[in-house]
């Protein structure tokens, strides 16, 4: 069956062996596997079905179990998402954390300033006591919930019902606000509702692929491998990269005859307006399709008119000819796939710039057909479910909080008074929730599966809010994180593989993740914890029965599916039984589409009808809302909106004191605040400590060479880390945001002598996009000064966008090649499984 197995080090060889193929053919299957070095494959007792929880790609995976422990993973060959492949995080980072010696195993409560162990009754008792007192004294608005993009669908839905129908608080959001709020907002503005139009199979059919502020080679490595298998095959697509760093995407753009546009940090909108204007200028427009399926053409043309290539070049610091070239690639290809992520979402005009990507596709009628797709990416593995289920404040099922009949549908499903369900104002976004907690108007803040002390902007402020007496803080996590250390009550949670539930990836594909092992000590699933709270609070419905009518994950799933039937996010054809099949399935899954749906909007009909849509929309520049009356007057009737906005400068521009632009992001080897990847020795050694990247010119001007200790300062704070002279554009500084105060005990390879001063978010700003309310982690101003000479290279990896720009003259500073991952096996199958929805399978034709 197989054509041989390759054993390799997937720290050094991030993407594994290539399986090149040509346009319109199925992506070959390759099965990647990693087992703990002391485990033989023959000793694995069980393989348990799941999907990887370390990024939004959602690769299908089986978990290896031995002696009641998770000991490795294997990609699922039959899964339509990954065709068997896994990346370095999935391989080395999926299971190691679970067996770490420092898991939370018992609840903790604060006594005399210290956190001490206690039992569940005491810990939950304290929460319930505070909760009841606050409800009596101040009402439901005293409660805030800040959750995650890493829990399961069943957990979000349960929490959403508790918050909306049990308590009645609008103060509920996820870290999805920091992550993919813009994805949802952009879909709503253009198409009327959230929901990814495109599909991963667009990679097999596209003629060009545009990546906007998306470092896919580091953040969705398996998806990038899928692209590499096209760009290294016959008739490769051209790659266009929009990123101020020379990432691996930029290198691939150079290889394929595409373009690398490196806009000045914070100027995306000017660039997008320039591309849009070029489409008008050259009449690269599908007039018939646009007339039939869109609204707003004339207004858009007017908005982009001033953005000539020369004008854009001046704002963005790019070559006008390169802009023209990129626009021509878009204008002359029949099928372009676009992907968008944090370089756009975490900038100040996030929604406007992401909507501009939709505009390009709509103008060319490039949506809903193979190869012509948009992937407004997610980042976290379960961010999509938070958005769907409403633990991010939206109403479950992409319902419109401003539409009384949508509220009524939920009131009936839950058997509660519609007035209980908060819908008198937009849901409170995370940044606002923290402001209310700061002021003490929120007196109970419940944080689950996120580490805001490291991941939210302006860290000093967040620590102050969490550590103060004005608000009672509950933290539910696997570990005693930087956030948990500041809490009043800490609840030990069961993690991935220790509980059952479902989650949905970027292209709407739903996977079931089965419980493989028992959680440690007294840790409980987040679902059980939320149910325990609901029971203790005694929430009931109008009939006097318990508000939450389910006890198990499967029952929660069925309850969720039951309220999705008449909504775009239709789960009615899904069940646990069905999800135990060979592959995850993309929604909508219903009677009409029993195997799921590969791409949305094939018929050019969008969910924009006034009575059906999820929002009436906003002004993209100011965030001002469009009213129901205004929306109705436009008669959208299934047409998509073309919406534009002029470019406006970022909140903080460089100044004399802070002459450089500060931007932040990721490395391939760590996930977020490293609670999982920091506990994998293979991954931690590859990127053991923080650094900043400077261009050669900016480094030289400051007498800085590779590995020197530098102080990076913004008006909000400072860090001291080592410098990598790297591939970032002149005038900009890039810092990875993974490194908080926590240092892994296994750290070999050298951490930081003073871990209090390395956290990228000490420098970022408390400002957000006016529409999506996503904070702008990617634009601020800073100064960099040399503190002292280093005694070796910086700890930045060499295999990625962080690679050094050139060999340092001083041999001691020469970075060592990043390598050293335990042996993984990789097997290319010579018979590709049948992927039922894949339009490239021969029997389906093209
Ligand atoms: N290895 C790894 N993978 C991950 C994660 C992780 O932590 N580690 N996290 C997951 C999650 S939750 C997310 S949200 C995704 C994020 O995935 P990405 O968005 O791909 O990652 P980032 O590094 O945050 O940012 C992407 C790029 O934006 C560029 N950028 C910075 N400023 C600007 C700008 O002004 N304009 C433009 N055009 N680009 C700019 C940066 O140079 C960077 O290369 O990754 C997911 N996958
Ligand atoms: N400067 C800067 N800051 C950023 C970003 C950036 O690019 N730059 N990116 C932002 C983005 S996109 C994101 S997504 C955020 C991520 O930021 P966070 O959400 O804070 O990052 P994580 O480290 O993933 O935190 C998840 C926590 O949940 C815990 N956990 C994992 N599984 C479970 C579970 O099943 N149950 C419970 N109860 N706990 C669990 C983990 O131990 C961990 O502590 O960071 C944001 N912050
Ligand atoms: S690409 Fe993402 S989902 Fe797939 S193995 Fe890597 S981290 Fe996991
Ligand atoms: Mo994210």
Characteristic key phrases:
single chain, 846 residues, alpha/beta, N-terminal domain of TfIIb, Rossmann fold, Dimethylsulfoxide Reductase, domain 2, 4 domains, 7-stranded mixed β-sheet, 6-stranded antiparallel β-sheet, 29 strands, 28% helix, globular, binds ligand MGD, binds iron/sulfur cluster, binds molybdenum atom
Molecular structure report:
The protein has 846 residues and is of the alpha/beta class. The strands form six sheets. The protein has a seven-stranded mixed sheet, with helices on both faces. It has a six-stranded antiparallel sheet with strand order 1-29-2-5-4-3. A six-stranded mixed sheet has the order 24-26-25-28-23-27. Helix 9 (248-255) links the parallel strand 11 and strand 12 (259-261). The radius of gyration is 25 Å and the shape is globular. The protein starts with a strand and ends in a 17-residue tail after the last strand. Iron/sulfur cluster binds at residues 52, 54-55, 57-59, 82, 86-87, 89-90, 220-222.
């Amino acid at each position: 069956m197989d054509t041989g197995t390759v054993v390799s080090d997937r720290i050094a060889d991030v993407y594994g062996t290539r399986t090149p193929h040509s346009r319109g053919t199925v992506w070959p299957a390759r099965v990647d596997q990693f087992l703990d070095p002391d485990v033989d494959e023959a000793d694995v007792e069980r393989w348990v079905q799941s999907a990887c929880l370390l990024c939004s790609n959602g690769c299908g995976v089986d978990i290896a179990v031995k002696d009641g422990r998770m000991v490795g993973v294997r990609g699922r060959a039959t899964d339509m998402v990954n065709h068997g492949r896994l990346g370095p995080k999935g391989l080395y980072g999926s299971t190691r954390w679970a067996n770490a010696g420092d898991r939370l195993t018992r609840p903790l409560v604060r006594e005399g300033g210290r956190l001490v162990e206690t039992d569940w009754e005491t810990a939950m008792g304290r929460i319930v006591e505070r909760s009841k007192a606050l409800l009596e004294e101040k009402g439901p608005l005293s409660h805030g919930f800040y959750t995650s993009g890493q829990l399961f669908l069943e957990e979000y839905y349960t929490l959403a019902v508790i918050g909306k129908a049990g308590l009645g608080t609008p103060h509920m959001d996820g870290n999805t606000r920091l992550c993919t709020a813009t994805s949802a907002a952009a879909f709503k503005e253009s198409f009327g509702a959230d929901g990814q139009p495109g599909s991963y199979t667009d990679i097999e059919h596209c003629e060009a692929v545009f990546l906007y502020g998306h470092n896919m080679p580091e953040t969705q490595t398996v998806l990038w491998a899928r692209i590499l298998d096209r760009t290294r095959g016959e008739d490769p697509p051209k790659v266009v990269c929009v990123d101020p760093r020379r990432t691996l995407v930029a290198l691939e753009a150079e290889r394929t005859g595409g373009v690398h546009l490196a806009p000045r940090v914070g100027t995306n909108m000017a660039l997008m307006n320039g591309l849009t204007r070029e489409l008008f200028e050259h009449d690269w427009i599908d007039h018939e399709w646009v007339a039939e399926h869109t609204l707003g053409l004339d207004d858009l043309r007017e908005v982009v008119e001033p953005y000539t290539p020369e004008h854009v070049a001046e704002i963005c610091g790019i070559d006008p000819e390169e802009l023209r070239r990129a626009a021509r690639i878009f204008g002359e290809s029949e099928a372009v796939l676009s992907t968008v992520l944090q370089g756009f979402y975490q900038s100040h005009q996030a929604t406007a710039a992401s909507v501009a990507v939709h505009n390009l596709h709509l103008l060319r009628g490039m949506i809903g057909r193979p190869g012509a797709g948009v992937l407004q990416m997610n980042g976290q593995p379960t961010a999509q479910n938070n958005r769907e289920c409403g633990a991010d404040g939206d109403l479950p099922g992409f319902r419109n909080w401003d539409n009384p009949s949508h509220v009524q549908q939920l009131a009936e499903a839950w058997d509660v008074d519609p007035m209980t369900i908060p819908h008198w104002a937009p849901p409170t976004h995370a940044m606002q929730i923290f402001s209310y907690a700061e002021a003490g108007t929120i007196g109970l803040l419940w944080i689950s599966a996120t580490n805001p002390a490291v991941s939210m902007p302006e860290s000093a402020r967040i620590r102050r809010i969490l550590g103060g007496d004005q608000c009672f803080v509950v933290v539910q996590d696997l570990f005693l994180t930087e956030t948990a250390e500041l809490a009043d009550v800490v609840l030990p949670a069961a993690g991935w593989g220790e509980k059952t539930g479902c989650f949905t990836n970027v292209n709407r594909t739903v996977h079931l993740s089965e419980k493989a092992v028992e959680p440690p000590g007294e840790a409980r699933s987040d679902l059980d914890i939320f149910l325990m709270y609901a029971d203790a609070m005694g929430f009931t419905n109008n009939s006097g029965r318990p508000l939450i009518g389910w006890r198990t994950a499967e029952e929660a799933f069925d309850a969720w599916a039951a309220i999705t039937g008449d909504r775009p996010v239709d789960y009615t054809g899904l069940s646990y039984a069905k999800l135990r099949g060979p592959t995850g399935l993309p929604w909508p899954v219903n009677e009409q589409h029993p195997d799921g749906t590969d791409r949305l909007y094939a018929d050019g009909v969008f969910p924009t009808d006034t009575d059906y849509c999820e929002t009436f929309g906003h002004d993209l520049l100011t965030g001002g809302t469009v009213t129901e009356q205004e929306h109705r007057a436009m008669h959208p009737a299934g047409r998509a909106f073309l919406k534009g906005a002029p470019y406006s400068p970022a909140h903080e521009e460089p100044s004399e004191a802070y002459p450089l632009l500060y931007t932040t992001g990721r490395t391939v080897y760590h996930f977020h605040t490293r609670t999982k990847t920091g506990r994998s020795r293979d991954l931690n050694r590859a990127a053991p400590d923080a650094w900043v990247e400077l261009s050669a010119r900016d480094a030289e001007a400051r007498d800085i060479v590779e590995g020197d200790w530098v102080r990076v300062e913004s008006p909000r704070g400072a860090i001291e880390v080592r410098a990598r002279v790297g591939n970032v554009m002149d005038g900009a500084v890039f810092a990875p945001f993974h490194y908080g105060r926590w240092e892994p005990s296994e750290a070999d390879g050298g951490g930081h002598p003073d871990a209090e001063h390395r956290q990228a978010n000490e420098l970022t700003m408390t400002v957000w996009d006016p529409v999506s309310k996503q904070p702008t982690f990617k634009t601020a101003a800073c100064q960099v000064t040399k503190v002292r000479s280093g005694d070796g290279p910086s700890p930045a990896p060499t295999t990625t966008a962080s690679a050094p720009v050139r060999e340092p003259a001083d041999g001691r500073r020469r970075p060592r090649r990043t390598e050293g991952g335990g042996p993984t096996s990789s097997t290319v199958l010579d018979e590709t499984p049948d992927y039922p929805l894949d339009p490239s399978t021969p029997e389906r034709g093209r």
